[in-house]
Amino acid sequence: MDIQRTGQAKKKRIRRAILGTAILVVVLLVTLGLNRLEPAAPTVERETVWVDTVKRGEMLRQVRGPGTLVPEDVRWISTSVEGRIESIPALPGVTVTPDTVLLEMTNEDLEQNAAEAEAQLKAAQADYLDLQAQLESSLLSQQASAEEVESRYQQAKLQAEADEKLAKDGLVPEITYKQSRLRAEQLASQAKIERQRVTKASSSNQAQLAAQRARVEQNATLHEMRRRQVGSLRVRAGLQGVLQELPVQVGQQVTPGTNLARVARPEKLKAELRIPETQAKDVVVGQRASIDTRNGIVEGRVVRVAPSVQDGTVIVDVALTGALPNGARPDLSVDGTIEIEKLDNVLYVGRPAYGQANSKVELFKLTEEGKQAVRVPVQLGRSSVNTIEIVSGLNAGDQVILSDTSAQDGHDKIRLN
Hints:
Elements: H1 6-36, E1 43-44, E2 51-53, E3 55-71, E4 74-78, E5 83-87, E6 95-96, E7 101-106, H2 108-168, H3 174-231, E8 234-236, E9 241-245, E10 253-254, E11 259-264, E12 269-276, E13 288-292, E14 297-305, E15 313-320, E16 333-350, E17 360-366, E18 372-383, E19 387-392, E20 399-401, E21 413-416
Parallel strand pairs: 1-21
Antiparallel strand pairs: 2-20, 3-12, 3-16, 4-11, 5-7, 5-10, 6-9, 7-8, 9-11, 12-15, 13-14, 13-16, 14-15, 16-19, 17-18, 17-20, 18-19, 18-21
């Protein structure tokens, strides 16, 4: 006879339910645990990163920029007249003196004008001499007439004095004395008038000669100007130095103001640096600088800071106080470093691959054992060419990674092998 086993089937169902619930709970716990686990820290080879140690002490702020050596005394020679270039006796690279002829030009109009001005000057000078002779002759005649009247007056005066004595003695009639006195008085007035005429004639002569002399001077000035214009057709260096550029050719027609040549004194050079505009704000005249000529370092001082920005840079002129090494010449490429200031007792480290001055960045700081690095926020301060000030976030002796760690973005830790 069969016995029903209903209790056994029920127990199996209960066991299955408990087992399923337990499995579900285990799966949920494992999932929750995995979600709470931190992602595995990436591994970086120690040799591939740049590690530097934070230091405390004196930090020298500097800015750097490329540049060239340029002569301090440079002169562009331009033409003041129009002309056609006939010959070029000197070529770039030669040593010149102030009187060295660099170019010879021709201009027939200028030469004709100079000849006409010379002829006008000679004519004006001849007219002056002719007028001077005429006026002197007229004045001499006037003076002779005045002298004649003066002589007649003196004779009449003597006669009047003699008749006065004779009249007192009764030897001549009174009327005779009166007539002699009247004649002397008339000649005295006439002599006075003649003297005034001579004076006025002399003043008039001087005025006429001054006017003619002014015309002569005017023509002389015009002639000198025309002569200088013709002389300008022979272009001279005007400076002791080296002819650097001659951007014209034989047969070329040039107009006034055209630059014909550049002459420089190569023994006195300065450095013309191009400093990035973001760094040039702290550069001022008088700061010390050092110029790397690739053949030696030359000391110098900042003498000029350009007021405007060109192509993202500011031109800074540095006068060289040290001796130039062999091979230094105009247009030589150089690198310049300018000392801005010295910061005492500050935290500083090498400049990271990213992060500007006075900004906040995140750097990886090495742990004590040096096998891991942890991301920390760092406040940067003033910067130099190779170093930057640490305002907060790091302490002296800390080691940080300064190379580019953008590949580890999203990770707070990295392992170092």
